[in-house]
Amino acid sequence: MSRRGIVALLSAAALALPLAATSATTAHAAAPAFNVLVFSRTTGYRHASIPDGIAAIEKLGQEHGFAVDATEDATRFNDADLAKYQAVVFLSTTGDPLDQQSEKDAFQRYIEHGGGFVGIHAAADSGYTWAWYGGLVGAYFRDHPAIQQATVNVVGQGTAATKGLPNRWTRTDEWYNYRSDPRPDVRVLATLDERTYNPVGYSGGSMGADHPISWCHPYDGGRSFYTGMGHTSESYTDPLFLSHILGGIEMTAGAARFNCDPESTG
What we know:
The chain is 30% helix and 22% strand. By secondary structure, the chain is an alpha/beta fold. 41% of the residues are buried.
């Protein structure tokens, strides 16, 4: 080969190298930071906002670099499938969404091995006969009053789930009363000011001066975050609520600090 031919080949190879390197960098940058499974099966009341919630979490994943799968197939709760995810979101599940013992056992093993759980709204209206799940969520739903505006006191400062939220947060939602106070087993992140709305549920009564509505805690080897907000479709276009959900996902997935010990203050 002539000297001119050799120079031409070397020049072509040199030009190809940056293109190859750029392609590899792009592929690396596109890799998701972590994977999330959104589970929304219901065997009781079904919230009309579920599709809005799925779409909102998928959009959060696109914007913040994590992958989202959505399912209502309870058979996905097996060791092999769950191992693909750093967090599992129960989005307004109701009744007994995992109705096979093998599914429950697999999910329990997932948490025991360090998995993350995010419960949104009616996740607390699920699994009433499964005491382990009740402990994971933190409290079971009891009743609620009519949908109305109320003021939320954001008390768990210094977490990803409360970052950017006002200390006094006024919003409209369906405000749950719970069968028990999750304290002292959780770190409460937000409470309801019952003076700002009619808190009496359909079974009569409310929770009183201390009314947790969002919390997080380590549980049985894993990480748990729950918020009672999220009944309305409008919630899933509310930037503050979406920030709250995003922080909970990142905390439970291990992508943000999980400062959720019940005694934690920052």
